[in-house]
Every structure is written in structure tokens, then in C-alpha cells.
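This part of the workshop introduces the protein records we will be handling. An example says more than a description, so a record of this kind follows.
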Amino acid sequence: MPLYEGIGLTEKQAVVIDIGAAYTKFGFAGESGPRCIVRTEIRCPETKQVKKVLNYSSKEELYDLLVEFLHNLYFRHLLVSPKDRRVVVVESLLCPTVFRETLAKVFFRHFEVSSLLFVPSHLVSLCTLGVNTALILDVGYVEAVLIPVYEGVPVLHAWQAQPRAAEAVESSLKSMLLNHNEKEDFPDSTIEDIKVRTCFVTKLDRATKLDEVDPPPDVLYREGGSDTFTVPGKVREAAYEVLFEQDNDQISVATMILDAIVKCPIDMRKPLAENILVIGGTAMTPGFKARLLEELKHLLKDPKYASKLALKTFKFHKPPAKENYVAWLGGAIFGGTDMISTRSLTKEAYLKHNNVPDWADLSYNCREEDKISL
């Protein structure tokens, strides 16, 4: 139970949840960190196989996965009743509609929560900094998503995304390890552990000539207590290069930032370039931000950007939390304000209309005089 509950409180603190593709952050509003960070997966009671929650094939399967997953979160990790507390859901602006509607159905119909508040992860991340303008890059597990926010308003026409993040790094790492070791396969958990424990992002000057420079030391990795194999230094250094290599569309993590700035009006470009916030678990990798800054300065010399941008400096914010739960912390701060009572979707309103308001739906995102025609 929360340590702060006592006689003087009139309402129990809300539950804040941030469901990621790999890990879910779960805790209480008003606290400085989540109570638990767990894998977004469940173990099937019948088959005993581990199933990722976001790997679903239908609404019905997603509903069942979310029921089991949230039940474990409430009754195994937090030990609180869902009915007693409001819920704040931290989500991406690009969250699929089917997921948020199914999630709302699970919360309201199965767990019978009193209210639900969806908050955009890129926007509430600014609550941790106390600023209104920033360029937020979220490098998660499946994809990297970038959305500029100017004076508290997301600049949606300048958003950027690419399907390269931690999953692409692990795929690259796995293929390189299979080439250097006489093994048929590596478990996903082993690849993730090797990535976190041994790999890093190298400097730009070394990245351009990895075959010529002396590699860092090899690492002897122990698996299963007795089995060992070698993780070559060259593999440790090259694993994250997939994030900075431009794909067929000439897009990389660095070009996403510059392309977003170019799409913004001229008077917004300098404030955005000097207020960059990088979040997501992949951003915790040693050397990631330093390499990103080098890539930005190098790309500014490219004719593609030199003729459009007159920027000289880029500045990165240092958030008051680890990058993997900055968005959750923003939701916890937001959930501690009166916004949770004024902007939440109540159970009564949901059961009456049986849908969730969505910014992408014109029936909710237009002027009052235009709603009659819709």
C-alpha cells in the first residue's frame, strides 16, 4: 500500500500506467518513480508459453491478454483494488485506436475503474522539465517517434517516425553473434542482456572506419552458469550503428530531428534545436546522446540541410529521471493535479456512449457549429 495514505486524504492517489512494447511502468500519481517495471508479457495458464501482450491477432485476443496482464499488475505488484482509484494511461499520440479502445473496455467493464485519463507521452514528458517548448524523441523498443512541442502544443505536421529502435539493435546484434560463434541460436533474453551489459554507441570518427581501427576488448559472456562464449569487441561497438545508418528513405535517428525542424516555421527552429529531450530505454545506452550530437553537427554540413537551416548549436535536456520512465513520471505529475478530475473519461460517460474520445476523430476534434454536419 502507498506510504502516504492516511486520515487526511479525501481521495486515493491515481494509478499511472505506461504500456510499452517491451516493458510496462506501473505506479501511483505523485510519486517520483514507478512501483514496478515489468515485461509487457504474460504466461499462458494452459500452454505455459510466454506471450507478449502487443502481439495480438484480434480484439478478442487483445482483451484477454490485457485482462490477465492488468490483473497481475494490480494484485501481484501494487496490491490495491482497481475500483478504488482513478487511472492515468500514458500513451503515444500514434497509439492504434483498437488498442486504446480495448484498453478502456478492460478498465471500465472488467475492472470497473471510476475514471480513465489518456495523456500523450511526448507532451507530459515536458512536465518533468517545467518547460513548454521542446523537441521530444522517444526511442523505444519497436520504433523511434519524434514530435515537436511548441508552447504546449504538439506540432503534428512535423512528426517523424521510423521502425528502428531496440528491436533493430537486437536483431543486428544477434546476426553478428551468430557469425562469430558456433551456435545455432540465442534466446531473446540473452541477446537483450548482452546488449545492455556489453554494447555501447561509439564515436562518429570511429564508426566511419570500424574495419580499420583497433576494436575494444572482447567480453567472455557466461550463459546458464557453465556455458561461455565470446562477444567480440567489434560486435560490441557496431551493434548500435543500425540506428544511425540511413535507410532506403534516407532516414536515421539524427535526420528525424533535422527533418522535423525543417518542417517547423522559422521562428520555432532555434528554440526547438536548443530544447531537445531524448527519452526511451534505448536512450540510456552509453554514448548515445554524444553520438547523436555529433551526427547532427555533421549532417548540418550536408547540402540538403545547409541551405535550409542556419543552426549552430543543439542542446539536450537532462531529465530528473532515467530515460526509460520519463514519460511515466510526467504522467504521475499530471495525475497529481486537478486535471484528473476535470478531463478524465468517467465510467458513466463510457457506458453511455460506449466509445473513447480521440483527437484523430473529427466528431471530437472540430468546432461546435461543425458538429451538426458530422
